[in-house]
Write a structure and sequence with these properties.
two-stranded antiparallel ribbon, single chain, globular, mainly alpha
């Protein structure tokens, strides 16, 4: 692991913290998530300290695990660039699907996840979906092992009443006791972390970013 990659493992969780904090606070404020007062150390805004720590630790765990897998599994050849727009279009459609759910009771949590996470995934795939396709093996291995681990940990936390998810704001469908929205939350957040790191370190990503920025600059006479 290079020095730059090591720094990146710490940078991405901080970016995730900045992006996620308003969303987390809204979830707690609206009652989708709730925490018994005797189960938390304190709060910043509406969100407990522990939740902020989780956001950072999930990013660190995902980054370290992904780099470990990448060193052992390697990368596949890059595939067609057409994957970029099919992927981006799919995630944009999912984001738009989430908007009407925000105005329902049982669909609120699902809608919040879709509207919050899908634009990020759409951007990632619009920028480098072809790069991500070439890293499919390590991407799937990292995402699904991390997701399975966090599903188990969260199911235990809910069972111990460390925190609650409002039945009013969910579809009422569960996966071995874990609400399907919560299972989706861990899946999409791990995808965001793993794919974000893979795009940052891909050798072709910087030239593409530089070319994109050059096209966006105004033409000087």
């Amino acid at each position: 692991m290079t020095y730059g990659q090591f720094l990146l493992i710490f940078l991405l969780p901080l970016l995730a913290l900045l992006y996620t904090t308003p969303w987390d606070n809204d979830l707690v404020y609206t009652g989708v998530w709730s925490y018994p007062p005797d189960r938390v150390l304190g709060r910043i805004g509406y969100v407990p300290f522990e939740e902020y720590a989780f956001i950072v630790l999930q990013g660190l765990l995902g980054g370290l695990w992904m780099f470990w897998l990448l060193r052992r599994m390697g990368a596949d050849p890059a595939k067609s660039g057409g994957t970029r727009w099919w992927g981006a279009g799919t995630f944009v459609t999912l984001a738009l699907t989430g908007i009407p759910l925000l105005f329902t009771d049982t669909g609120l949590y699902l809608g919040l996840i879709l509207v919050w996470a899908m634009p990020v995934l759409a951007f990632q795939w619009a920028f480098g979906g072809d790069f991500l396709s070439g890293l499919a093996r390590v991407r799937f291995a990292a995402v699904f092992t991390l997701t399975g681990y966090l599903w188990v940990a969260d199911r235990l936390a809910l069972g111990l009443d460390i925190w609650q998810i409002s039945p009013r704001d969910t579809l009422g469908v569960s996966l071995l006791g874990l609400p399907v929205e919560e299972a989706l939350f861990f899946l999409v957040t791990n995808v965001m972390v793993v794919e974000g790191l893979l795009l940052f370190i891909h050798p072709c990503a910087r030239p593409r970013l530089q070319a994109l920025l050059a096209r966006l600059q105004p033409i000087h006479s």
